Amino acid sequence: MGLNFDSGDVFAMRQLVLEADDEIVFKTDADGFILEASPAIGRLGFSLSEMLIGPHLRDLADAPFRPEIERAFA
């Protein structure tokens, strides 16, 4: 199942990432590593621009939710 976004959808999502002050919006690769995120991700104590590889989504989740995230990216 693929996702088909038109240019308006892509623009709206990009604006969410750029303008989200109090919410973390991110994009992951197929394995679950964060590729891009809104500036609010800095509230978690790190900056993606300073990292060679972004953290895995499971590393940001509470322990009870990690197995579900692992299954989603398997």
Structure description:
The chain has 74 residues and is an alpha+beta fold. Helices cover 28% and strands 9% of the residues. The chain has helices at 7-19, 66-73, and strands at 26-28, 34-37. Strands 1-2 form a two-stranded antiparallel sheet. The chain is globular. The model has no long low-confidence stretch (mean pLDDT 83).
Strand content: 5-15%
Which structural class do the helices and strands define? alpha+beta
Alpha carbon gyration radius: 13 Å
Number of helices: 2
Number of strands: 2
Oligomeric form of this entry?
Answer: single chain
Helix content: 25-40%
Gap between N and C termini: 15 Å
- Major β-sheet annotation: 2 strands, antiparallel
Succession of helices and strands: HEEH
Poorly predicted runs: none
Query: So what's the overall shape?
Result: globular
What integer is the average pLDDT?
Answer: 83
Order the strands across the largest sheet as they lie in space: 1-2
Q: Helix and strand layout, with pairings?
A:
Elements: H1 7-19, E1 26-28, E2 34-37, H2 66-73
Antiparallel strand pairs: 1-2
Short description:
The protein is an alpha+beta fold.
Descriptive terms for the model:
2 helices; 74 residues; two-stranded antiparallel ribbon; globular; alpha+beta; 9% strand
